[in-house]
Amino acid sequence: MRPATGTNRGPSAAAGNRAALIAAAREVFAAAGYDAPLSAVARAAGVGQGSLYRHFPDRTSLALAVFEDGVAELEALAAEPGATLDDLLTLITEQTIASTAFIEMVSAYGDDLRIIAVRDRVAKVLDGKLAEARRVGHVRADLATEDLILAVGMFAAVLTMRPAPARRVAAARAWALLRKGMDA
């Protein structure tokens, strides 16, 4: 996050302001949840609320911008030679532990077409690695992408009910249970 400069740098500051808002939202949502005041995000980014709303007309737009980084990271990992379904699930786990706010958003506004589009991108990434895992016998032959999405949702729901310090232990236990149902 960057400190407020006290001077209006005009349109030339737009890209920097947007990046600062995304970084601040990631931290504020992770600490205070999806319903954290947007004024706290603007303050943490060192910009006014007007700037926040120029870049992100609503809370979901801001959260999706933050979530986009995580989806891009999943897509990049999936494209790496040798990346496996387990690698993707590990990254999803780390992302979920870091911020359950995005799971709250997906749960609360799951009918928003923007959220559906992001969820579809995640499903596409998982689908490719799931097919490979089925082919080599690492998971049950009848395991579907929808099953993985459901498992991630159940896993995330467990984490949203835990305080941040306890999430890592809960994540390990939840995935151990879920994994038993996925194994071949």
TrEMBL record:
This is TetR family transcriptional regulator. Keywords: DNA-binding, Transcription, Transcription regulation. The keyword DNA-binding applies. Coiled coil: none annotated. Residues 37-56 bind DNA. PANTHER family: HTH-TYPE TRANSCRIPTIONAL REGULATOR BETI, HTH-TYPE TRANSCRIPTIONAL REGULATOR RUTR. Residues 15-74 form the HTH tetR-type domain. GO terms for molecular function: DNA-binding transcription factor activity; transcription cis-regulatory region binding. The lineage of its organism: Bacteria, Bacillati, Actinomycetota, Actinomycetes, Streptosporangiales. Pfam families: TetR_N (PF00440).
